[in-house]
Amino acid sequence: MKFLIALYRSNFWVGLAAAALTYLSFGQEITLDYLLYTLFILTSTISAYNYMHWVKSLNNYREKKSLEEEDHPIDWASFSRAAFAGMLAFLLLFFLGSITLIYYLFPALLIALLYPLAFPHPNRAFSSLRMMPGLKLFLIAGSWSYLSFAIPYWMQGGVDTLFFGWEFLMRTLLVMGLTIPFDIRDLDKDKPSMRTVPQVFGKDNAIGLAILALFLYQIWTLMQFFFFGQAWFQSLAILLALEIGIRMIKNLKTNRSEFQVNFWIEAIPIILLIFSQIAALAFGNSYF
Fold first, then answer.
1. What angle do CA 243, 168, 262 make, to 5 degrees?
2. In this predicted model, which residue has the larger pLDDT, 254 or 209?
3. Which of 198, 191, 161 is CA-nearest to residue 176?
4. In CA terms, which of 24, 32, 133, 136 is 20 to 30 Å from 233?
């Protein structure tokens, strides 16, 4: 159990989830560049989430200090992990050696850098991107979809704009469905001004919207089978994995610990990859 807790507290688990979604986007022909990019997503996600935790602890420390309250410790462990994973990410980017890739990555990297930072603003309701009402969910979902699908699609030379548009939209909805449970987890911590989904619609309705998002991706998976030539075993694997994800989200109706929410919801993309790999090994060609 301690090992599993360490996985999610170090943000390695969420990095693995992002890497799993990215790896699935590359299909069955895996090249060295595709592997390097997947590892880049793993390390950069670990770095970004640890950086956000460090900035949050720094802001809390400054706030407590200004109020002359007991010092709130700065999370230097997150800073160290962010720096180390960030160096690995830049090293992988160097090995990829693509200026064009850096150009495409820049918007997402800029969002990750600015997302937790506080800035002076006359309306204190949104003093950072994270605190801006209703924006948090779209920033997270859009960034994950862009990094885990749009860039891999470009790297593979994809030209089907219809498929790209639908997959990007449905991938964004899927990530939204996976993000809403964390807003439910933070319902008692988030400021009301953030206007998160559970704050606006209530806990039960938020769970329903998260389930709907995964269900819509199941429908899109069937559309890929019938209209875009996706292998039947691949479609079946995704449908089954998402069904497990739906049941996990339904279980949030009962209060769950922070560890349970973090570990099992972040595990859904990993389960998607595992099921897809098993299906490929059993009925087709493995990704490896």
1. 45
2. 209
3. 198
4. 32
* Bigger pLDDT: 61 vs 202: 202
Task: Give the helix, strand, coil percentages of the chain, each rounded to 5.
Answer: 80, 0, 20
How far apart (Å, rounded) are the C-alpha atoms in residues 212 and 209? 5
3-18 as b/e: b if 16+ CB within 10 A: eeeebbbbbbbbbbbb
Report angle CA 137, 143, 147 to the nearest 5 degrees.
Answer: 150
Question: Computed from CA positions of residues 248, 49, 209, 24, in that sequence, does the dihedral angle turn out positive or negative?
Answer: negative
- Rounded distance, CA 149 to CA 155, Å? 10
| Tokens describing residue 39 | 């590892």
Please state, as a whole number, how many other Cβ atoms lie within 10 Å of the Cβ of residue 278: 13
CA angle in degrees (0–180, nearest 5) for 5-196-258: 15
Confidence of residue 116 (pLDDT cuts 50, 70, 90): confident
CB 288 within 8 A of CB 278: no
Nearest to 5 by CA among 251, 249, 261: 261
Q: Which pLDDT band, with edges at 50, 70 and 90, does 18 fall under?
A: very high
Amino acid at 85: A
Largest CA distance in the chain: 64
Cβ-Cβ contacts under 8 Å for 81 (sequence gap 6 or more)? 10, 11, 46, 47, 50
Helix ranges (H only) for 150-257 are 151-155, 161-185, 197-201, 203-227, 232-250
Q: What are phi and psi of 94, to 5 degrees?
A: -65, -45
